[in-house]
Every structure is written in structure tokens, then in C-alpha cells.
Amino acid sequence: MRHRIKRKKLGRPTEHRVMMLRNLVTDLMEHGKVVTTVARAKELRRLADKVITKAKDEDKVKALREVLTVVTKKDVAFKVVNEIAPKYADRNGGYTRLLHYDYRKGDAAPTAIVMLVEAGEERE
């Protein structure tokens, strides 16, 4: 049973897992979508939504500092605070979409595409 277990370990030590997820969030914010395994994608989705929620703060300096705790590139952090977060000002969560994609060639791991939801889209 998985009661009270907050997140998956993804078969990595803590430092490696945290850095891998930070890099995935940075790439997602920079390019708009990322292709990765399903397990990583589910963890990425949780972290990316939290980053965008922090970036929506009215105080831009505070928001930038909080985003920089996760995002590894300064220019991407500025992009999140100044361009991405204002698009989702009227949306309460659900900023990312996960689409199951294919199986990876080497080990047949299921892959998924994580992408940012367009700002004008309605939820179903």
C-alpha cells in the first residue's frame, strides 16, 4: 500500500531526483513541452503547476525569487514571471497537460508529452 507517500522516488537518490525534476521544469517553461517517461511526467506536472502558481504573485520580486528556487536558468525564470504566469491569472490550477505518447525504443518505457495548456482553453 502507498498510504501517506507523497511522491515517487524514480529510482534515483534525492539530489539527483531533485535536479532532474528542476531541469525538466526549466525545459518545460523554456520550450512549452517536454517528452519524458510517464512516471517522470506525473511528478513534473505537480512541480510545474506549483511554480506557475508561485509566479502569479503580485509582488514580482518575491515571485521571481520563489521561481528561481526551482528553475535553473535566470532568463527562463523571468519568462515564467513576466510572460507565462500572467496568461493564467484567471485560472486556478491545471496549467499543464499530460498526453500518453508512445514507448521508448531502448527499454519500451511508456512516454508522455507534458505541455503547457493554452491560456484561453476551457476545461472539460
Task: Describe, in plain words, how this protein is organized in 3D.
With 124 residues, the protein is α+β, with helices and mostly antiparallel strands. It has helices spanning 14-31, 38-55, 60-68, 74-87; strands spanning 33-37, 96-103, 110-116. It is built from four helices and three strands; from the N terminus they run H-E-H-H-H-E-E. It has a three-stranded antiparallel sheet with strand order 1-3-2. Helix 2 (38-55) packs antiparallel against helix 3 and helix 3 (60-68) packs across helix 4. The longest helix has 18 residues, at 14-31.
CATH topology: 50s Ribosomal Protein L17, Chain: A
What portion of residues belong to β-strands? 15-25%
Helix percent band: 40-55%
Task: Tell me the radius of gyration.
Answer: 15 Å
Strand order of the largest sheet: 1-3-2
Low-confidence segments, given as residue ranges, are none
How does the major sheet shape up? Answer: 3 strands, antiparallel
SSE order: HEHHHEE
Features:
124 residues, alpha+beta, 50s Ribosomal Protein L17, Chain: A, three-stranded antiparallel sheet, 4 helices, 48% helix, globular
Describe the structure in brief.
It holds the Pfam family Ribosomal_L17. The protein is about 50% helix and about 15% strand.
Protein topology:
Elements: H1 14-31, E1 33-37, H2 38-55, H3 60-68, H4 74-87, E2 96-103, E3 110-116
Antiparallel strand pairs: 1-3, 2-3
Keywords: Ribonucleoprotein, Ribosomal protein
Subunit structure: Part of the 50S ribosomal subunit. Contacts protein L32.
Pfam families: Ribosomal_L17
